[in-house]
Amino acid sequence: MRILILGGTGLLGRALCAEAKRRGHAPLSAARVDADYTLDLCEEDALASLLGKARPVMVINAAARVDLAACEADPVRADHINARPLRVLANWSQHTGQPFVHISTDHFFDG
Predict the structure, then answer these.
(1) I want to staple 35 with a disulfide (CB 3.0 to 4.6 A). Which of 31, 53, 98, 103 is the partner?
(2) Backbone dihedral angles phi then psi of residue 100, each to the nearest 5 degrees
């Protein structure tokens, strides 16, 4: 199964890629650097373009800006990384019928 893992080079993303591979799947990592696919979530159409190119059967979103102070200092960038991809993934999932999993946190910021 071709599983696209956003944030695939982060702490959680690396573990998800390793576990997917161990279970016989074909994980595809996407991140800013050192990944199967280079992805900057702040670029408007980058994620939609990647979904069309990679053609995964499932997406796991482990990408996030996790530094709470940085999110509060730059809420626009936090939205681009933490919120906007969910809209793209929801639209993709609805259009293709393929599932996506979003990893989140119990933290929130006032932004």
Answers:
(1) 31
(2) -135, 150
